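#struct-help
A.M.: can someone run this one for me? Single chain, 582 residues.
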Amino acid sequence: MRICTGTVVALVAIGLAVPGWPGHMDAAPFTYQPAGKLVSGSGKGNSTMKDYVPGMRYPIEKAPSFPNSQVWGVGGSKGPKGSQCDKKNYSYPWWDNFCETRSWSMPLCPSGKGHQGQDIRPGTCEFNKWYVVACEDGTITSVGTYSVYQHGKSGTTHRYLHMKMSALKVKKGQYVKKGQRLGFVDNDFGGTSTTLHLHYDRKQYVKNVGSVYVPTYGSLVNSYKKLIGATNPTCDSKACAAKSKCGSWGSCGGFSSTCDTTGTQKRTCTNYACSGGSCKATNKSESKACSRTTDGKQVAGWSSWGSCAAQGPVCAGKGSQARSRKVCKGGKTVSESQKQGCTIAVNGKVVSAWTAWSACGGFEWPCDETGVQARTRKVCKGGKESVETAKQACKTGKDGKLIQPFGTWSACVGVAGPCDTTGSQKRTRLVCKDQATVPDHETRSCPRDPEGDVTEVWGDWGDCKEEDATCDGQGVQRRKRKVCHGAVEETETEQQACAVSCDPGSSGGSASGSSSGGGSSGSSDVLITVDAGNSAGAASGLAGGTRTSSGCDASGRPCAPWWLFAMAPIVVVWRRRRVEAC
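D.P.: on it. Structure tokens below:
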């Protein structure tokens, strides 16, 4: 008997030839990789060797047979280059490929996804030669484009994929016995092709999981052993276990951070136990907690000194700056800091920004439009705050600005003429225009009563003239003025008596302010208004009721000639003279 070392288990049938197996048994002993060990890079498998269908028949009728990866094998899409019929694909050891990387949901796979069963190559790379057989008694429940479903008496659903579908030996609903032929191993894949192999998987109900695909590797190993008639070599379990030992504990490590005080120590223990007739080693890592002291340990060195930050008055120029580092304390990372004094260059430093420009002012006269505005800011100077002032010229429009309000309204004066009953009033204020003070007038209409208003004052007296050519020494002189009557401007005439010379030698007579003979004793002026409707009465009153041609009444007083009273309405004034004889 020959035993292969390492993790490959060798099972040798003693003096037994395998039907249909080219060569002799001792030339090709049956070996297999552990369950869950997949081809490198093809995923992570399930390491259980549980036989989910004890006593099942191996699904290919005759040995040899080589379960391994179709995708990661020679000629596969992710395997080494070469032919799918390469001898490496048709040799031991077996390789588990349950849970091999796929996208199907697989609750019993470590990643939760993977290959649903086991790919199995027949003894040689030949078509129409190797039969697939039923694993247990049961009914064919479905026949697809490249799959056959069987419900076994154990309650397991078996699937057989990639047989030659055109040469099947069974049909849907047919009851088959364990070991009964179903069809040839082929590469049928529903119209396309794959490698020459049988994909075998099965579903069972798993507590707390449900109906899922379960590992096939343990069942396939056990059923294959029965097929080839192999027997397990004996193994001394006590002697095997005595070989178990543990290495020394490693240093304390595995800390989560520089300051972490709690870590782990690890060691590797090699345990030996009988499996498959041989003493197999299993390495197991053990760990335990450990601790260390980290207080004061520097995690990060001192940083550079920070900028100098002012302390106290800004313009004092004094400040402080800090730096920090990280150290361990109580198992955690904490910061330590240092501070030192520093000097700040502050001369000219702005303490407060410029204020807004002030209103435009500083005008030289009320209507001046060009002025000055200012703004200020605070800066450091000589270690103290100092106020800086900036000025700029400014201009503001003042046209219409009020300098002096309106005065009182003027008298109501005529508009169309001096005797108009509707007049106007005016008032004046002072405003700015083109940087000068100018009057601005406002007018309004007003009612007026001009009755009796003198629009033109008395003129000079006219020449003294004798009116009746009697040469009585009595004459008349007149003057005029203009007054308003009934909104009409009229002329009034005033006349007064005056003395004229009665010298016969003179032509026309001459006026005199006094008599030339008889010696007047004085005179006075009288203003008389004669009513045109009662001229006789007025004249009578004026002359004492007696009219004479000599110009004297009966009492000897001078009197106006009679024609004077026929002129009405007029105003008459004469100079009354006292005479001693008439």
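A.M.: thanks! Residues 408-447 form one domain.
D.P.: also worth noting: The CA atoms of residues 131 and 164 lie 10 Å apart.
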